[in-house]
Amino acid sequence: MALTAIADTRLLLTLEFPPDKDTKRKVEAAMTHELTHRLLAPTIVLTEFLKIAGVRIGEATARLRLRLLKERGLHITNAQRGNGLVRGKPSTQTSSDSYR
Q1: How far, in Å, are 28, 46, 84, 98 from residue 43 at the CA level?
Q2: Residues 5, 37: contact at Cβ < 8 Å?
Q3: Cα 19 to Cα 15: distance, rounded to the nearest angstrom
Q4: How far is residue 28's CA from residue 51's CA, in Å, rounded to a whole number?
Q5: Is 43:10 a contact under the CB 8 Å cutoff?
Q6: Which one, out of 27, 49, 80, 98, has a CA that is 20 to 30 A from the CA of 65?
Q7: 14-46 burial code (b ≥16 CB/10 A, e <16)
Q8: If we measure between CA atoms, which residue out of 45, 46, 77, 75 comes closest to residue 63?
Q9: DSSP conformation letters of 65-95
Q10: 3-state secondary structure (DSSP) of residue 55
Q11: How confident is the model at residue 82 (pLDDT cuts 50, 70, 90)?
């Protein structure tokens, strides 16, 4: 059974701003592994990364970092409620139904 990893904002920020050398090495190794095995990033994660990292390193540099990750194999997905799978079949819920 193949699994797909989903990147979150914390992972991307830790990759960009690691707290120490050991963490940097571990996160870079994990990212390299996951990028070769189809790592997904929801668009909201990318937006959050741009907002936070853009303040520290500039928006252009933050966008460049995301572009480089995409070139290395990061797949972007629009993950929203109601887009999930239910028992292996696409969900038929409308977006308004998913909030009830």
Answers
A1: 21, 5, 15, 19
A2: yes
A3: 9
A4: 22
A5: no
A6: 80
A7: bbbeeeeeeeeeebeeebeebbeeebebbeebb
A8: 46
A9: HHHHHHHHT-EEE---TT-SEETTEE----T
A10: helix
A11: low
CB of 94 closer than 8 Å to CB of 82? yes
Whole-model pTM: value is 0.74
Which alpha helices (DSSP H) does 6-73 contain, by range? 9-16, 21-35, 43-57, 59-72
Average pLDDT over residues 57-84: 87
Query: What is the C-alpha R_g of the chain?
Result: 16
Give the number of C-alpha atoms closer than 13 A to the C-alpha of residue 22, restricted to the C-beta side: 0
Residue with tokens 């409620």: 81
* Cα 18 to Cα 10, 32, 44, 60, 97, distances in angstroms: 10, 16, 21, 20, 40
Over residues 59-88, the mean pLDDT reads 82
Q: Residue 21, Cα to own-chain centre: how many angstroms? A: 22
